[in-house]
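EI: anyone free to look at a 110-residue chain?
SC: sure, send it
EI:
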Amino acid sequence: VSDLEDKSRNLVELQELLEAHIVDFTCISEFRNDIETLEKVWNTSKGMKAHHSLWRNGQWKTLNLSSITHETECQILELKSFPENAHIWDVFVGLMENIKQIKDCVPLIK
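SC: here you go
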């Protein structure tokens, strides 16, 4: 992406010299933002799934259910803080559904 940004800057300078506006390169910065957001979503997903795995593999008698409820609420808030365009990605939707399922199951375990 950095190479594309460098090349686009050079082409923009050439366009300015020629006083012509032929190509709009703003999509490259949008692409960079999407890549960075996707990386954050994936890293968040990886961490949350590891946490969920600990809950699933733990003994139900020893789980602190109020803590799990609180943590799932915090996880939902954290996911909602991501940019709107991330909310339609499969990784985001799947993780959100997983968290809601865990939250919905907590009262059944009590």
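EI: Helices lie at 2-17, 26-57, 65-80, 90-109.
SC: 👍
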